Automatic annotation (TrEMBL):
InterPro entries to which the protein is assigned, alphabetical: MFS_dom, MFS_trans_sf, TM_effector
Organism: [Clostridium] fimetarium
Protein name, per record: Transmembrane secretion effector
SUPFAM superfamilies membership: MFS general substrate transporter
GO molecular function, one term: transmembrane transporter activity
The entry's keywords: Cell membrane, Membrane, Transmembrane, Transmembrane helix, Transport
Superkingdom assignment: Bacteria
Membrane topology qualifier: Multi-pass membrane protein
Residue ranges of domain Major facilitator superfamily (MFS) profile in the record: 31-441
CDD domains on file: MFS_MefA_like
Amino acid sequence: MNQRGGIQNMEIQNRDLQNIEIKDRNKSMKKFTILVVGQLISSVGSGLTDFGLAIYVLALTGSVTATCIVSICAFLPSILLAPVGGVLADHYDRRAMMILGELFSGLGLFICLASVMSAKPSLVVICIGVGVSSLFMALMEPAFKATITDLLSEEDFAKAGGMVQIANNAKLLIAPAIAGLLLQITSVSTLIFIDILTFFTTVFVIVVVKKGMVTKRREGAGLSIHLEMKEGIAAIRGKSGIVAMIIIMTIVVFCLGFVQILCKPLILAFAGKTQLGILASVCAFGMMAGSIVISCLKNTKSYRKMLSLGLIGCGIFFSLMGVKQNLFLITLFGFMMFVFMPAIQIGAEVLIRKNLPNEVQGRAFGMISFITQMGYIFAYILAGILSDYVFEPFMSGNSMLAIQIGKVIGSGEGRGIALLILIAGMALAIVGVIVFKLKSVNMLESLTTLESETIKETEGIKNETFVEACKEGF
């Protein structure tokens, strides 16, 4: 009887412990959900400013090159500090990094707002403002992502990762349509002011949930950014397949950088801001559709084929966006282009991830992201110059070649940009064909297949959740 009673007491204690654990997990998830809602609001605000400033600068200067310069100032600091931000997030209080990042990023927006509202707006001042904002956002984002580990148990990591992606994607899915509608009744200064308010909202949310955010610092390791970046380079150096993949991804990002910059002047050449905003949001939903399709696939046998198909499909629909001045067709082709993007990201990520040791993947992917994102910078530099000084003048001229091309894609304002988009899309599709034939990439696929077969034999098949490795890169 005593033994039976002891067993019952142990079962009761175990149930009590499980109930306490479940309550703690639910409490932590509630705090994290509040934090994600704050990040979603901030993401929408950032999207409003990005959309509004791009149109404002284009209208102010009439130059695609000027828009590219602003984009470089907004993007370059986040690229250069991407490896540094992650290291700092592992060594310092993530709450403080998030709060300071949000507040000082808001300071950069105040600089932009002051210039936009002045009698003589200055492109230089706007560039300084977006640069300052980007600088501090680069320090804040790794700390925000690391709070998943601070707040939650491993069982909730996958769910939390999905929530973070939804918050980040709000910038693409919701903000353009809202910005396009708001610009019909107000000015870009209102959009920037709304963005500033969202930063204070996020800071308030961080303060509310800060009690559960305890930074788990690396023990026994000093802060050596140079050393950790060096380790990231060493992890990828000497592996021809991975180096080839990095080169391929950089070219892909370079091509996609063109559509990011050129789609706005392409549409505004024959349509309005509201139409542009709605079109951008609808196209971005294509990425969600593509992700759902891939998540429904079972037993993917070749990630090389997935990557190649994604590149070819994305490139074809990318090119078709430049063929006709028709909003419906451009929206359709843009949507389909985004549908193929997850195949590029997931295919490339898996091929690299499965050929790197787990203990160096964080540093390696940080360095890979840094390298591939430079493709955006080169694209931003070239897109403006080629558009303003080569392709637009060419398509506005009376040469025989321009006339013949104009019979296919049209002539006049914006058709030089259309031709540039068509060429960039064709280049992307050609890269897809090369990937399928490349021996070094095929070797990565062979090693990945061999590893999968070994896992099946020794441990059984494991379900794998794909996380975003090179977010900005793709």
